[in-house]
Description:
Layout: H1 13-22, E1 25-31, H2 44-60, E2 63-64, E3 68-69, H3 94-108, E4 112-117, H4 122-139, E5 143-147, H5 164-173, H6 194-198, H7 201-222, H8 227-250, H9 255-262, H10 268-274, H11 277-285
Parallel strand pairs: 1-2, 1-3, 1-4, 4-5
Helix pairs in contact: 2-5, 2-7, 3-4, 4-8, 5-7, 7-10, 8-11
Amino acid sequence: MNVTEVQWERLLPAEFRAAQSQFPVVYLPLGTVEWHGEHNALGLDALKAHQLCVLAAQQGGGIVHPPVYGGMGGLDMPATVVMEGEYEWDNHLLRPWLEKLCSEFMRQGFRAIIMLTGHYGHNQQITVREVGARMTERLQIPVLGTPEYWLAQDAGYLGDHAGIGETSLLMHLHPDLVAIERIRADPDYGKTDAIEKGSTAALGQRYTDVIVSRLATVSRAMLTWDEATRAAFVRAERALISAQVRGWRMDQPWAAWRKAFDGELTHYGKYLAAGQFEQIERMAAQCI
């Protein structure tokens, strides 16, 4: 059977079985509903994460679970749903929900899981990466949890909130959900014309191509990882988590990110795709 559809909810049972048997990788897109300026759709985070996963599955194989709307943090703005606080150490909703989904995916027969979060407050990023490392050990299958921008930092996409990067991605992935001219009436994002002039669908496509290519590459590799490779992957991911949490405790929530963006850590996506986990671990030490 030739399977062209990759979205779980749109597959017939026979199509699901065929797709999973051909490539037992599942993508879990994560996001929220949150204010992204007057110029962007409120579901931007999950919309872009979902479409990036769909494109990666179409390119490399796998099945895409429907996006999970709801995460940690969110602006104090209209039409924004905050499930758990940005600066709360405790996590009672997102973590157990993701862990249960991962367990279900393994029970269903998947042999690798990629959780891609398009929402990336600092606590969201930490939690998703922690779940990936923890469930890799618990399930003994590879589980990656990362924001999409970490896969394209070396291409110039360092992550933003309704800025040039996110707006350009949405322009490319869902052009009907961006009304860039409305930014002029936005007292925050429209204070200058930088976002309006800098955001383009072409830039969004450039970022998309890098992210999708690396997702497809990593997904293929994850199915081949042995126990030693999984252990090296977990060490690398835990090194990143440790740096981020220590920066939060010792300084302020974004301390580790500030150091990361100034250093070689922007090559995370390249090293992940190449399986160079020791290099990621060394880079994480630069953030402490």
